[in-house]
Amino acid sequence: MMSGKDGHDDNDTELALKTRPKTERPPLYKVLLLNDDYTPMEFVTHVLERIFGLTETQSVEIMLTVHKKGLAVVGVFSHEVAETKVAQVMDLALRNQHPLQCTMEKE
Ligand code: TYC
Asked: Which of 21, 36, 42, 89 has its CA 20 to 30 A from that of 53?
């Protein structure tokens, strides 16, 4: 609403609501962990703790969700961070000869 006798919108509320702010937030990416029949549960839990900084309890919970449902979202990150985490998981899996798969998807 206008306030002040000069008709000026003192707090710029109207302008802020009518125009789109030029600062667009960068897109976010979900990092997904996929189930397989061979990767040991303990290895997956360890990877979640190590790469995503989760507690053991959080890691076991996500690992079991993946095991039961086929996949789970581990976290949501900027493109660069998501890409790095996927690469770190895939590198650890490969070096330990486990078929664990991790991917990212635009939110
Ligand atoms: N399904 C695997 C097993 O029974 C465990 C597992 C969980 C593998 C999560 C991958 O992303 C995964 N050993």
From this structure: 36
Mean pLDDT by 10 residues, the chain (107 residues): 41 55 91 99 98 98 98 98 98 98 97
Ligand 1 in reach of 36 Cβ (< 6 A): yes
> What's the confidence (pLDDT) of residue 49?
98
40-50 residues labelled b (16+ CB within 10 A) or e (exposed): eeebbbbbbee
Query: Is 33 a pocket residue for ligand 1 (Cβ < 6 Å)?
Result: yes
CA 63 / ligand 1 centre spacing (Å): 7
pLDDT of residue 39: 99
Question: Across the strands, what pairs with 30?
Answer: 76, 105
Q: 12's torsion region: left (phi>0), alpha (psi -120 to 50) or beta?
A: left
Query: Is 77 in contact with 28 (CB distance < 8 Å)?
Result: yes
